[in-house]
Amino acid sequence: MVARSYGTMQKFSASVLQNVTKTSSSMKRNPRKVRWTKAFRKAAGKEMTIDSTIEFEKRRNVPVRYDRELVQTTVKAMKRIAEIKQRREHAFWKNRMAASREKLRAHRKKTVEKTTVRLVEPMAVESMEERVREKIKVHAKSRSALIPGEGRSMGMDID
Q1: C-beta of residue 85 within 8 angstroms of C-beta of residue 51
Q2: pLDDT at 25
Q3: What is the pLDDT of residue 14?
Q4: Where are the domains of the chain?
Q5: Taking the model in full, what pTM does it have?
Q6: Is there a contact between 21 and 2 (Cβ–Cβ < 8 Å)?
Q7: Residue 70 CB partners (closer than 8 Å, separation 6+)
Q8: Which residues are in the Large ribosomal subunit protein eL24-related N-terminal domain (predicted)?
Q9: What is the pLDDT of residue 69?
Q10: Which residue has the higher pLDDT, 102 or 23?
Q11: DSSP letter string over 37-69?
């Protein structure tokens, strides 16, 4: 629990969050620029800001006399509002992701074009065999012992 200079008490579920918040506020950081805050999410358009369901969550400081029927209708209304809000948030999220999905598709298409290896049609089997035969073929001249300078003469010239 942290007591602020302006008199509010803040409760945290984890001591890590408490320490981060102490550090952020002591460093006088702008909450709209710190990515993990609600203020950032709303300013960046990642959460709904204009919706009638948000109005119901606001705290009202008007004391109301206890009435059992009023409490029952309020609880039913809260459940219904929660369902509506969940549906609207899901639709908002889908709209947000549609734009990023298009960007992701374009990025993937671009990377595929850069990194793909172009496949060449395989050569016919006959032409492959011909190439192998050409590589194996040895070009040898026919040499004769009867012609001077060719063949395996013992160094003797024949007249």
Answers
A1: yes
A2: 66
A3: 63
A4: 1-47, 51-112
A5: 0.46
A6: yes
A7: 64
A8: 22-49
A9: 94
A10: 102
A11: SHHHHHHTTSS--S-HHHHHHS---------HH
